[in-house]
Specification:
- The structure holds 2 protein chains of 2 kinds.
- Chain A is an alpha+beta fold.
- Chain A has a single domain, classed as TusA-like domain (Translation Initiation Factor IF3, 2-Layer Sandwich).
- Helices cover about 30% and strands about 35% of the residues of chain A.
- In chain A, strand 3 (about 55-65) and strand 4 form a beta hairpin.
- By secondary structure, chain B is α/β, with parallel strands linked by helices.
- Helices cover about 35% and strands about 15% of the residues of chain B.
- In chain B, helix 1 (about 15-30) packs parallel to helix 4 (about 115-125).
- Chain B is globular, with a radius of gyration of 18 Å.
- Classes of the chains: A alpha+beta, B alpha/beta.
């Protein structure tokens, strides 16, 4: 399955969340976006973000200093 | 989760560093599906001016402000000059501007958005800004000094909005 990828490496709080929100707004329900971040706070922030909005955090992986999130739109 | 999902903020400070918390929380709040209103009063009004280039930080009276240089070798960047500099030094004209430019550089190095960027996103996403009419008069501002798309009102309007809000912060 192909994902839209949002590279937010180097950006700090709250930009990864804001840009993800804007990207999700353009997507259809059940579509998935891959977000790559280096912001250390993002690991907890994306959980809270998905929790509030009802999106599904399908998976989260760490790759060195990068945090990768797969979010399925509600 | 409660039935309403509103957040109201009072922005009362007008320095570069203190411009961040209300704009970060407002933009994040709206990104998380909340309805957000920011009441800008006293120095917080400055957040709504068209021109934000004058925003500065003031190390004056802030003796523990961490102050690390955003350039040079690693060992040099690790030195915290903040507590080492006597606070009286910040009375010297020009040093506040120097501290501000160092802060801006540090923010840029850390991938932190500018105040202009954050404010633009807030407006784009629908944060409602309310400019305090009383302080506008007191400071001698004109409506033309402010950005488009904001509301001008007083304390009663804010309290009415905040009445139904379930998160209300004074910054």
């Amino acid at each position: 399955m192909s994902h839209q990828t949002l590279d937010m490496c180097g950006y700090n709080c709250p930009m990864p969340i804001l840009k993800t929100k804007q990207a999700l707004a353009k997507m259809d329900t059940k579509e998935t976006i891959k977000v790559i971040c280096t912001d250390k706070g993002s690991k907890k922030d994306f959980v809270a973000f998905c929790n509030q909005l009802g999106h599904t955090l399908v998976s989260q992986e760490d790759e060195g200093n990068k945090f990768i999130f797969y979010i399925e739109k509600n | 989760m409660s039935e309403t999902n509103e957040m109201t903020l009072i922005a009362s400070k007008g320095t570069l560093d203190w411009a961040y918390p209300p704009l970060i929380l407002a933009s994040t709040g709206i990104a998380m599906g909340k309805e957000v209103s920011v009441f800008c009063t006293f120095y917080g009004l400055i957040l709504l001016l068209k021109d934000l280039s004058h925003l500065r930080i003031s190390p004056q009276g802030n003796p523990d402000m961490p102050m690390k240089m955003p350039f040079g070798p690693k060992w040099f960047q690790g030195i915290n000059f903040g507590p080492k500099i006597p606070n009286i030094m910040w009375n010297i004209p020009g040093l506040e501007l120097f501290a501000t430019s160092m802060m801006k550089k540090t923010m840029k190095n850390n991938g932190i958005a500018t105040i202009e960027e954050l404010r633009e996103i807030c407006i784009e996403m629908g944060v409602k800004f309310i400019a305090c009419e009383m302080t506008i008069g007191m400071f001698g501002f004109a409506r033309e000094d402010f950005i488009e798309g904001i509301e001008f009102a007083g304390a009663a309007t804010y309290l009415d909005v905040a009445h139904t809000s379930n998160q209300d912060l004074f910054i």
